[in-house]
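quick one, 263 residues, struct below
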Amino acid sequence: MRIAAVAFGIWVLGFGLWDLHAQRRGGAAGAEGNQLKQTLYDMADAIGMLRNANEVDRIGSMNYWATGTIVSNGQPCKVVDYKASVNWLLKGMRVDYKCEGAPQRHVEVVRDNLAWNETEPGKGGTAAPAAASERALVLWTLPAGAIKAANDAGTATKVATENGKTVVTYPIPSLKADVKLTLNKDNHIEQIESRMGGVTTVTTYAEYGDWNGADYLSDVMFPKRIIQKRGNTTIADLTISKTNTYNPYVILPVPETVGRGRP
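---
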């Protein structure tokens, strides 16, 4: 049943979840509405989200691997074997890594409003409710996630120009968060400022490219560098080593101890 549900979700994504091309063609009330629709279209088109003749969003899941540093449990960590697996259809993400010099494996998961830690992917789940909102915010402030969230916010999404650059603002109601993203000249997201629970996080993205590998290119663009700060504290400084943007099979089964047997 789980496999069928995921397959159905991917089918929905490809054939009707979000038709930006139709939005672009449709009439909009006023110049601001037209500008917003065009901006959302350009953002999605710039990273290769729009596929087939109808230009629909084809990014449902992805994996990426990275090197660099993060803050883990309040302590600096030079990551080893860092892998992030994302599934926007399931509204979830798993980050799997070790810290250099330490044997412990960290597997941190979020799905909807649930968060838990695992001993290894899909096993040994322990609830981590306090981490749910923070982990979900990462999911929805990755470039593709931010574009999806901006679209989902509907009329609450606004576009403007600041210091010669296009900015888009929108809320994420489920997280009680407000987001402001800034675009570069290529319509790539170069910065996201998010405010949630009185905490402001600034994430910068740079060096967009297809990092799937020379024999596995997909024309889906992802930033090579991801730097995340809160105030003067850098909480993540990652360099992407590889991606898989061909909608890899990413499942996030909720442990019975966390979600009462939810699939």
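DSSP finds six helices and 15 strands in the chain.
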